[in-house]
Amino acid sequence: MKNIPHKIYLTEEQMPKQWYNLRADMKNLPDPMLNPQTLKPVTEEDLYPVFCKELAHQELDNITRFVDIPEEIQDFYKMYRPSPLIRAYQLEKALDTPAKIYYKFEGNNTSGSHKLNSAVAQVYYAKKQGLTSLTTETGAGQWGTALAEACAFFGMDLTVYMVKGSYEQKPFRKSIIQTFGANVIPSPSNTTKAGRKILAENPGTSGSLGCAISEAVEKAVTTPDCRYVLGSVLNQVLLHQSIIGEESAIAMQLIDEYPDIVIGCAGGGSNLGGLIGPFMRDKLNGKANPRIIAVEPASCPSLTRGRYAYDYCDTGKITPMAKMYTLGCGFMPSPNHAGGLRYHGMSPILSKLYHDGYMEAVSVEQTKVFEAATFFAKKETILPAPESSHAIRAAIDEAIKCRETGEAKTILFGLTGTGYFDMTAYNSYLEKTMSDYIPTDADLEKGFAGLPHIPGIQE
Amino acid sequence: MKNIPHKIYLTEEQMPKQWYNLRADMKNLPDPMLNPQTLKPVTEEDLYPVFCKELAHQELDNITRFVDIPEEIQDFYKMYRPSPLIRAYQLEKALDTPAKIYYKFEGNNTSGSHKLNSAVAQVYYAKKQGLTSLTTETGAGQWGTALAEACAFFGMDLTVYMVKGSYEQKPFRKSIIQTFGANVIPSPSNTTKAGRKILAENPGTSGSLGCAISEAVEKAVTTPDCRYVLGSVLNQVLLHQSIIGEESAIAMQLIDEYPDIVIGCAGGGSNLGGLIGPFMRDKLNGKANPRIIAVEPASCPSLTRGRYAYDYCDTGKITPMAKMYTLGCGFMPSPNHAGGLRYHGMSPILSKLYHDGYMEAVSVEQTKVFEAATFFAKKETILPAPESSHAIRAAIDEAIKCRETGEAKTILFGLTGTGYFDMTAYNSYLEKTMSDYIPTDADLEKGFAGLPHIPGIQE
Fold this sequence. Notes:
homodimer; alpha/beta; Rossmann fold; 4-stranded parallel β-sheet; 19 helices; 15 strands; globular
């Protein structure tokens, strides 16, 4: 057992030089995104007002299996990557399990999560096209921080529409984004038509992610040489995040391991889609058959209780429609839901893989998640993000099953980030004021009722 | 240039198995600590009520050159160490300097700093002696977090006296410490005689580090099987922190480098004393002659403007007296001073080395420090702690000198931690409300006036 070190870091030479595009190995591709005006599959050109050309291409490219990572992005990756693959010796010991538990830890960078992997790519391509500024929205703030870091590095202007409630409750997140030179605007704001409309109707609102997206998109399409960028759900994001899985597979190979179970938390799917890449590739190609488990909050259960249907990607219904597991674009998790993983839908790629039986999904309640997070912190000395802790919960549950059956399974999970900015939630867990909420079937029906009707496709 | 990777991680086999005790190579030892009752040099036995036996031994051991790191501590280190030695390629490029800049980054752990290196050692030895609980004080909270992590891991009870002002202004720091299971008490409190006295005299006080130390020490000596632990200044702390320097030296050897200049921030000296170990060893033994620079805040200038004298280690004057550079144990930095590095004295070992000319010291003003911090963050993607940024400032200044002279010097500095919990200070820098303060000579004279009179030793 002592032959495997606690942490495996790849050398720069061992680091992947290419991203992996899962779609190239899928026998059945996700249904195409639809242009909400024409109801026809979107073309790259349809996306140009919103995304820069290379990213529009990556979004729709179902064919290219491996995409070269530009050297400038590789150099940026080398500042904070490789991330370590960690053997959880102390967690295993505490659980008294024969299972071997590994986790890929993406939290050792200032953004605090894996989000930086895609942020740097999106900024690089925009800069290369000669664009001068970007817009985005941020809720919890990890994506906004990651993007601000990348924009500071490449010299791009950035405007972040931050959900007003977060802006007020998380002033430190705002300050970090500002420290990297970005302009942070509480949303809804007076800087856009969409924002002014919402403010006029509801002056006291604390905003929503959907509203912030609408403002950011409007700002991008009405500003010269500006584009909008997004940190999850999109195919391009899964492509960039594949660095997580490719590094994991190389590191496991170095120690002669292969996971029996791969576990990732799932909100929009950026981390999960990146982590599972090489293992799903083996599965699609019949080379291996690991279990792949998506873990989502019981309060926002898009995979386990959602519909597989065409839906808008945003609450404002201005984006293309994607075929995905969704709770309806009007769905909002209960106010007691802590942390991220609150998106109404799931990456179309992951939705299709789940629909076709390549992936399992479980949902967990948040008090169980924080119980796992606290236990993990005390044994492995890392304070995990609430999102990541969904994967910890499932990994612990699988390891306990191994204790019961005596099986020495190899478990790999993704630890996407750290919880420094989530202490309000940890506090409520500690003080036992945290509650669980599982939407009723009637709650979910309300969300499904808002799914779009598309003649001939979705009646 | 591209042959040297951005980051060097030692393998577990390459990691140091021993700490290094600087005193063993000093021709002239620091003057002994004095027992404030007897005015005689303290003995190990004198220290037993406060420190566990092994730590009391380490505190006074001037002879043992290398101390084996117990296997349990090595195993703990392997969870978050080795820390990377990073080549600051992007910072060099931005400064257009021929200098080669390296930094040893100690912030990639949940405590957010190097403090964990000594916390785990102190908890381990206390546990091994059969003690059941520990007390400490914390101001900014990094030490309290580190100690809580170590206590959670080894199953020790911990009470942290947190300066009331910090307790109220940094609720998230408190929550992290509580998440690891420690008991956090705002100081002054009703739990000690010292606290009750201060509260009676000044009910509205927001507390001070000196008062929190007094409460923690009182609690330790009046509780069965309990001891007090401290995160800086002490000789034992420098011993444990030597892991920083030893790792740095091994990593530099692997890439065939040796620093011309070693730079560390200096408050009580825990980081600086650890970082410089192997380089100071070479200097003391005539094998090399690197410049070694301590960087301190202009608002708390113990080395550059303090007296080399015997003084108490705490404001309450209950600890032994140490010969060190000091501003007087009553000295308090101006209220506009942000972050740590606010201790009135300096490690007796470092004080002696500085006094004997083995080390330089510079002081820097805080707006210049935050300017360097922000510049560094944008280029190297890490948000540094204000404390660490003192070293960044000096490293940048040396690199700029190299640009001017054309010299390709090799600079190594210690990046002790991250700044996630210091956004209030970053904010005031961004909003240009941050000011500088340099104490006047008259201010300093007030502190010196309180230095103890010791018949025959210090009149």
